[in-house]
Amino acid sequence: MTDSDDPDAVSDLDTASTVRMRWNTPLSQEHADLLLRRLDIRPGSRILDLGCGWGELLLQAVAAGGTEGPVPTTGIGVDTCAADLQRGRELAATRSLSGHVRFVEQDAATWREPADRVLCVGASHTLGGTVPALKALAELVRPGGRVLFGDACWERPPTPEAAAIFGEEALPIADLVEQLRSLGWRVLHLSTADQREWDDFESTWRAGRQEWLLAHPDDPRAGEVREKLDAQLSDYVGVYRGILSLGYFVLGR
Ligand SMILES: C[S@@+](CC[C@H](N)C(=O)[O-])C[C@H]1O[C@@H](n2cnc3c(N)ncnc32)[C@H](O)[C@@H]1O
């Protein structure tokens, strides 16, 4: 678990948005276990996670591949957020994975070393958007390898308000599947985040800041934080809840 309930964890407003999140995507542990099984991570695999955040899924992927045998599984997480990467290093240390996982501060678009399993979850924008990301991933996965691609898509046709928040980037899920096929990917697995995963993702994203607000009502920043939280919650329940989806695809080629 990384969504700790340590009351001191939200004393810093800068990190409060993510401190209650297990990972920065709508995903239950059960769903993550399924995706990792479908990725079929073999011992000795090299796993790359582009836009890894604090790398919770990467750490679980490396553990799933096994680090005890003669050829240990290894992981590399790439992100531009130094604080998230540091959180990842600390998590790795608590799981005795420091020797197996490296966290690198780098623009994902400049990464060139291929891997056996590549994760890109909620991070297609780091490679220029959905289609450029799918092209880049084809160069970054070794022959016979697999990719876990998690990308926002429309479960239902978006209202103009929802399209205004998420722009032109998200595709209807059927169009996204067509794009995958036309770019030479085979879909080995497809699932979408369900409502409870979305509600938990949205709630944990706000939870640290909500706790901070309750603990610091007289802070000069409190008014701005309250307004932002209220607007984000209204947008979620009023504009895109049940419309925006997150598709998880295990891909081969
Ligand atoms: C929605 S989060 C997903 C994080 C992670 N994949 C997960 O599932 O928890 C997107 C991540 O992309 C990172 N990011 C944004 N621009 C980037 C870039 N150019 N290169 C690498 N990472 C970037 C952010 O710092 C953030 O951690």
Protein described:
- With 253 residues, this protein is an alpha/beta fold.
- It has a single domain, classed as 3-Layer(aba) Sandwich (Rossmann fold).
- It contains nine helices and eight strands.
- It has helices at residues 16-19, 29-39, 56-65, 82-94, 130-140, 160-166, 173-182, 195-215, 222-240, and strands at residues 46-50, 74-79, 101-105, 115-121, 141-154, 171-172, 186-192, 244-252.
- Helix 5 links the parallel strand 4 (115-121) and strand 5 (141-154).
- Helix 8 packs antiparallel against helix 9 (222-240).
- It is globular and about 55 Å long.
- The protein binds S-adenosylmethionine.
- Assign the CATH class: Alpha Beta
Q: How big a fraction of the residues is strand?
A: 15-25%
Rg over alpha carbons = 18 Å
Bound molecules: S-adenosylmethionine
- Mean pLDDT across residues: 95
What's the N-to-C terminus distance? 33 Å
CATH architecture: 3-Layer(aba) Sandwich
CATH-defined superfamily: Vaccinia Virus protein VP39
The CATH topology is Rossmann fold
Question: How large is the count of helical segments?
Answer: 9
What is the general shape? Answer: globular
pLDDT below 50 for ≥5 consecutive residues: which ranges? none
Helicity level: 40-55%
The run of helices and strands is HHEHEHEEHEHEHEHHE
Reported for the largest beta sheet, the result is: 8 strands, mixed
- What is the count of β-strands? 8
Tally of distinct domains: 1
Q: Label the structural class.
A: alpha/beta
Pfam families: Methyltransf_25
Keywords: Methyltransferase, Transferase
Protein name: SAM-dependent methyltransferase
GO molecular function, one term: methyltransferase activity
